[in-house]
Amino acid sequence: MAVPKITVDYGKCTDPLSCTFCMNHCPYSVFIVGETRVYKFRETPLEEFRVYGRYYDRCDGCNVCVQGCPKQAISVTF
Amino acid sequence: MCQFCEQYGDGGKWYLNPKNYARRLYKVRKLETEVKGKEADPQAAGMGGGVINAIIAARVRGDAAAEAKLKEDAVKFAYAMHFGQVVTLEETLEILDLAYPIAKMTCACRRVQWGLADARNFTCLGIGPGMYKWERWPETYRGGVEFLSAAEAKEWVMLTDQMGLVHTLDAFGTPYIGGLCQCDYPGCVAIRNRLDYEFKFLVKGEWFAKVNWERCTGCEKCIARCHFRAMGMNVNTQKALVDPLACFGCGLCRSVCAADAITLSDRNLNPRLKDMW
Ligand code: SF4
Ligand code: SF4
Known about the structure:
The complex is a heterodimer of chains A (78) and B (277).
Chain A: E1 5-8, H1 16-19, H2 21-25, E2 32-35, E3 37-38, E4 49-52, H3 64-68, E5 74-77
Antiparallel strand pairs in A: 1-5, 2-4
Chain B: H1 3-8, H2 31-36, E1 38-39, H3 52-61, H4 64-81, E2 84-86, H5 89-98, E3 102-105, H6 108-114, E4 124-127, E5 146-148, H7 150-163, E6 166-171, E7 177-183, H8 189-197, E8 202-203, E9 207-211, E10 231-234, E11 239-242, H9 252-256, E12 262-266
Parallel strand pairs in B: 2-8
Antiparallel strand pairs in B: 2-6, 3-4, 3-5, 4-7, 6-7, 9-12, 10-11
Helix pairs in contact in B: 3-4, 5-7
Bound molecules: iron/sulfur cluster (2 copies).
């Protein structure tokens, strides 16, 4: 199966929940965001969320995410 | 009868059995590690999300046997602990008379899938005594909770039905039911993983839809309501079609039909569908 490698540079993408560009613009909803830590008695701070190309097998390489990411953090390579 | 009704229904539907809403959820946990925060796998986020990465990897490798085994093990674990099932609007309203307390909360799946802001994301209902521990795990209930009366919750659920959202219930420690979601494809991780990867974390509802062609006016309103790719138009007759093998029995097509052409039939009484969950 020809699938891409989708990487997100977490040095550049540090607060995905305040941005959400890739999550809302990928036509196949490839991206998901999740917590890297969970705490008792408080919410996870926003900078502890990371975005991933979980459903990369659905990606057709349209590059909407790569071109639109305001931090230029995403790469998609087949 | 679905396996959960057989085991936990006491002769009826398992989710209409009041016993399954009465779990003692307060447990003593290991305090120190939890206050410091524990590592979480962001890739595992969303209802039933933990295993999907491995399923996708197996599929990409072309390893069908590994994919099947992963699903078999994960589903077995899910059915014993945490899984979902599609229910109709009427059933959701009935459940709201059985469960207490009821609280509106943000949807973890749609946060995962779209990063939906908390203010726009209060579509899930947390139900049962588990809701009292929301303050202990604020991340699970991100954005806080809003306790509702049964009447308020019913009004809300009817609105979400008009919006076209699928009603599902969630077991948290089977057979205890702790959540009622109103969600969509692909926003609901469970619906998505079932449709795109045949991962049966989400079980079909007890019903399936039929269209009465004598009544159907061909308005096509129902078609867009189906999240399960079960509907289309018959080109020759210009009437709506339901694929019974694909239908999950959510009833959303039916609630929009002004001609009353769509009815739900009992999956358990249909010889072809009774074992398809
Ligand atoms: S390249 Fe297109 S299809 Fe692939 S992840 Fe980016 S937006 Fe989605
Ligand atoms: S055909 Fe109707 S009842 Fe069946 S899954 Fe689609 S919307 Fe729901």
